[in-house]
Structures are given as structure tokens and as C-alpha cells.
């Protein structure tokens, strides 16, 4: 499935993000039919919701709620929209993280780095235990039926998924089209020795895998050029195994990237097959080539699965190819990316 991530305009995005930073309650834009749910004997019933001073309708889950059993529940519908709609996710600065493993990975990293990550709500399969390692990190817990868990997780066997977290976007995620006050490129990444740049990578599985690989090889962050998939897309999150909440991710334009390059004097490389090159012959990714770059801060640009590198990337970057003795013309972008990330990883 392809999924293009298109940033929202500032006027719609910022109020939601500010509200989330100030108030732990989950906020949903006003629609024609909105309800709050209150608990009656451990179940939900509908009551009218009210708007706060900002004009947004609140969806506050009562702390004594025990179960959600219906997929028609308004809160479940809210979670499904977070799962399926990029614009809805980014307007609420929240995403669903499915499964115990990515959640543990996120919190293992956050504890080591002493960064704070917020779980607004932990959705737990009825009768399941709160996974070890997450028992001190959640806002509140709502138990759900297997039908609800199956609907939200997208996994046919609900028993294989016991927990889903509704999590706020990490503070390390930055959208430069919206956050106009983040003009100092030196503040975008804590470490800029190695930055992976993705140019129109639309497949969420490939994008998530590349984020995970960049995290594994200690790259400093990800820069997403226009046309890339949303890194908080369900499949991207699944492929990244929680790395989207660990590695700094910046979404911006070529103008932003050129500012980063100029400010930090970064070398620009781009992966390209050693065929069909029009302007300049690619260097070979040899050990000698890698050693020559060991002390140089650099950006590595990888193009989309179908079209490859954009014309702008080909013009602005030194092209580098992976030597292959076989007869295939090119590799899948996540496979090629893994090789580049490993070979060019920072040396301690």
C-alpha cells in the first residue's frame, strides 16, 4: 500500500498540538455527532460531550471505565481514524502503537536517554496482564474485547496482540512546514554526523525498515523530503519496531535540507545503481571510499522504489552504487539502504 504524507496547514495543526502539550485529555475535532462515554457497571453509555474554551470537543475517558466491547464505540472510532488517516493523526499529534515488542523498545530507549514519552491510554485485551516493563508508563488502562482488539490491530488473531497504546508524537519529530520558528538547522538533530534523507519513499514497510536500520547503526536522524510516507503510518510503525519514536525525524523541503548542508558543511551522497546514470558516474561503495568519509559529516539520500532518485537529488549529490556481481540492476530500497547504513555507519 502506498501512502503519501501531506503536512497540514499551520492554522489547523498548531491549536491541536498546543492543546495536547497542555492537557492530557484526548481531544477530537467537533463533528455533527459527538459523545462522551461514562461508565455504568463497567460498561459505556453515551452522554453529550462538551466543548472547551478552544472550541474543540473533548473526549475524556472516565478513570473507572473497565471495558469497551463494541467497535461502534466513539473512542474506538477515534482510534481507527488515528490508525487510518495521516491528516487526523497529525492534527492530534497522536498515533496507535500496536503490540508489546515495539512499546518495550520505545521505553527501553527512553529510560536510557531519560526522555519522556507519553501514553495517553493503554488498550488491553480483556483478562490480559499489563506487559512487564510498561506497568509504570501509561496514563490509564481500558480493557477491550477481542473484537475491538482485532479491529484496531488489524490482526486476525486478536490473541496474538494483547496491548495497543495511544501515544503522543515524540518531541524529536519536527515538521518544518508547520513549525516555522525552527529555523536554526543546528537544533533539528542532536547529532548530525550521519543523516539519512528519504526522497519520495512511499512504501510504509520500506520506510519503517529504513528507520529501524538507521537506529540500529546509530545514525543521527531521518530527513523526509516531500512525497514520503507518514512515519507514523500503521505499517511504518510496525516495520520500524518503535524506532519512529526513538530516532529524530524531520520533515521538510530541499530548501531546508540545503540550509542544513550549508550550516554544517555536510557532504551529500545519494544511492544510485551503476546503470542508467545521465550526469555523472557513481562512485563504488568500497571500503577505501568509506574510509575516506569516516570523519566527514554527511547526508545519504535514498530514492523511491519506483522512480528512484529525483532529478534534484541526482544533481545535488555525489552518486554512490553498491557493487554487485549478480545480474540484477538494483536492490529494494530498504535492502540497499541497510547496506549503505552499515557501511557508512559512524565509527566510535
UniProtKB/TrEMBL annotation:
<keyword id="KW-0808">Transferase</keyword>
<keyword id="KW-0489">Methyltransferase</keyword>
<dbReference type="InterPro" id="IPR001537">
    <property type="entry name" value="SpoU_MeTrfase"/>
</dbReference>
<dbReference type="Pfam" id="PF00588">
    <property type="entry name" value="SpoU_methylase"/>
</dbReference>
<protein>
    <recommendedName>
        <fullName>tRNA/rRNA methyltransferase SpoU type domain-containing protein</fullName>
    </recommendedName>
</protein>
<dbReference type="InterPro" id="IPR051259">
    <property type="entry name" value="rRNA_Methyltransferase"/>
</dbReference>
<dbReference type="InterPro" id="IPR029026">
    <property type="entry name" value="tRNA_m1G_MTases_N"/>
</dbReference>
<feature type="domain" description="tRNA/rRNA methyltransferase SpoU type">
    <location>
        <begin position="195"/>
        <end position="342"/>
    </location>
</feature>
<dbReference type="InterPro" id="IPR029064">
    <property type="entry name" value="Ribosomal_eL30-like_sf"/>
</dbReference>
<dbReference type="InterPro" id="IPR029028">
    <property type="entry name" value="Alpha/beta_knot_MTases"/>
</dbReference>
